[in-house]
Amino acid sequence: MTAPETIDPAADAAAQDGERAAVPLRKRVRRLIMQLGPSRMAATILFLLVAVLIARFSWQMPLLDAAERALYDARATLMAPHVEQDKRIVMITYNDETLFNTGIRSPLDRTILANALGNIDQMGAKAIGIDIVFDSPRPDDAVLKAQLRAMKTPTWLAYAEQASNPNTIFYEQQKYLESYIADVTTARTKATSVLFRTDADSVIRRWPDRPKHLPPLMTNALAPVDPAHANFQGNIRFLVPARAAEGQEEPVFANLPIDSFAMPMDAEMRAGFSDLVKGRYVLIGGDIIDKDQFDTPLSRFPDAITGQHETMIGLEVHAHMLAQQLDKAWARPLASPALWVLAILIVLAGGLTSLIDLRARWVALAFFGQMAFFVAFPFWLQGRGVDTMTLPTFGWAIGWLFGYAAVGTAARTVGSRQRAFAQSALGKYLPADVAAQIMRDPDQLSLHGERRNIFCVFTDLEGFTKLSHATTPETVARLLNEYLDRLSDIVLGHGGTIDKFVGDAVVAFWGAPLSRPDDGPRAAAAATAMYEAGEKFRVDLAEGVPPLGMTRVGLHVGDAIVGNFGGEGRIQYTALGDSMNTASRLEAANKGLKTGVLISAEAAARSGRDDLMPMGRVTLRGRAQPVDVFTPRPDLDPEQRARIAALVAAHAAGDKSAYVTCATALTGEFGQDPSIMFLIERLNDTEKGESYVLP
């Protein structure tokens, strides 16, 4: 059994170092493309295209978008800037204690707001934003309206409409709100939009759109915004307290109760409070347990101080957006071409990873290196001001897996074909079950010589050389292939291993590379079947083809060295040793003994056959040690074989009287059987214990 092997210096050096030579990646890719086939190649390309689309558009895909949002929330939380309290912005709020003290829950007490605005207006605030929608009447409306019309500080009143925010306000409320705002609008008091947009999971992550018919967004109204970001809709930069990790309560934005500013104040008292609002943006709204609460990316993880998944009041969301605008901390998304390039590269990386042919530690390093990239790279971008809400990080992982699976499946398909081809090739020399077992466990096909006890069979077709000179090469090739096919099928069908073909001769053995308890009976049955197949073959020859002689078969059992032998460029799985030579001599001895199959006594003892007839003791050509030989004679009945065995036993024992009696009887019975008659002739020419020396 031969297998070509290409040797190069690099591979040889690797082998000397005890490492398996790796196949270069480009060579594996080229081989895969060449061997895949059109249909499988099309399927692989289609699968890779799907992987690229997932790696690019996972934010827009069901289920995947939920994973992308979760990963974004993790990035937004872990990479959120830790800041000291922002002194530019202050929140003044109605809280639950205020509602309890006033006994008024909804609409909120407007007298308190009017009194607070009156005081704040004299404290030097930069601008005031009121996130309270006046969409229904109160008895004290006149007091608040008068104060709003009298404001000297720029003041912005919340406006909402049913069309853009149907879950917050209905038609009659909108009409009342519009009339209310129209009644108090001055050069200093105007309307502002408080529209928020939440994602499908009801979490606020990004700036809202600005419909043209709505007044300016509160954040944009309170402070000047550069025109380039007047319609910014990227991620909201949420901040976390710098001291939260130390367990100290200092929120990012001061939150003061409105009651403190609504009390009557003289000039001195007002001056004492003015430090809290002077030069600051003042945001007024509600901080009520069950109202105006929103989930943000920070809500996904427990708060460092409270340990709870904290929601955020709408007023505080406005504060974070205002701080982001004041800091000009506009996150910049990756351009679409860059996302396409990344998606393609990541899918290709997955595909190429499946083809890496390196030692396990390098493969593991490549794998974990890429996994680290998927985890770390998005956090790195988030920390450098990139809007990673457009970054399909989960899609990258899925796309990588799809690329790995697509190319890996294609490679396994090619490998399966190669494996099937290799198993088919092995099947030309080995039984199908043995070939399959060796493909599962290649170590069983020893790559070095090992001593095995094997049954060896040699065959030879008498007269084939003469035929090859008497007919055309095409006929010779056809006949030889047909003949060898028949004998090969018998060997493999009986569980044998084909060693080689030598012209018209077949060399086979049983007991390697795998041994079975019934190797002896299998080998003996195959030897007989090969002889019979040869006889049928020569009978079936077409008219006009020169006749052929019998197929002669020799079988012996003994130790041999079995393994792969050969030079650097070619190896052959074969058996070497005296047992092989003895089988060859037995095959040749058939001509002299006028038999078709000869089996040594050692093989006969393990053959499990009861149709063997002893052929005496002979000294094979080129051998010094005599061999007792047998031949299968299923055409004789047991009593006839027993009388022939008695003949040989009488000669071996030196019992001439018994021998003569047996010989006389057998001569009369088998006078036309050349092998038996020649047996008697040989025994007549030898004495007790002597062997017949074959010429």
Give a structural overview.
This protein is an alpha/beta fold. The protein is built from 24 helices and 20 strands. Strands 1, 12, 13, 14, 15, 16, 17, 18, 19 and 20 form a ten-stranded mixed beta sheet that branches. Strands 6-5-4-9-3-8 form a six-stranded parallel beta sheet, sandwiched between helices. Helix 8 (171-184) links the parallel strand 5 (155-159) and strand 6. The longest helix is centred in the middle third of the chain and has 35 residues, at 393-427. The chain starts with a strand and ends with a strand. The model is unreliable at 1-21 (pLDDT under 50).
List keywords for this structure.
single chain; 695 residues; alpha/beta; 10-stranded mixed β-sheet; 6-stranded parallel β-sheet; 24 helices; 20 strands; rod-shaped; disordered N terminus
Give a brief outline of the structure:
By secondary structure, this protein is α/β, with parallel strands linked by helices.
Which helices and strands, and how do they pair?
Blueprint: E1 2-4, H1 9-16, H2 25-36, H3 38-57, H4 64-78, E2 82-83, E3 89-95, H5 96-102, H6 110-120, E4 127-130, H7 141-150, E5 155-159, H8 171-184, E6 189-193, H9 218-222, E7 240-241, E8 254-257, H10 259-262, H11 267-274, E9 281-287, E10 293-294, E11 312-313, H12 314-327, H13 336-353, H14 360-383, H15 393-427, H16 432-440, E12 450-461, H17 464-470, H18 473-493, E13 497-502, E14 505-510, H19 519-539, E15 551-566, E16 570-576, H20 578-593, E17 597-600, H21 601-605, E18 612-619, E19 627-632, H22 638-653, H23 656-669, H24 674-684, E20 692-693
Parallel strand pairs: 2-7, 3-8, 3-9, 4-5, 4-9, 5-6, 15-17, 18-20
Antiparallel strand pairs: 1-16, 10-11, 12-14, 12-15, 13-14, 15-16, 17-19, 18-19
Helix pairs in contact: 3-13, 3-15, 6-7, 13-15, 14-15, 15-16, 18-19, 22-23
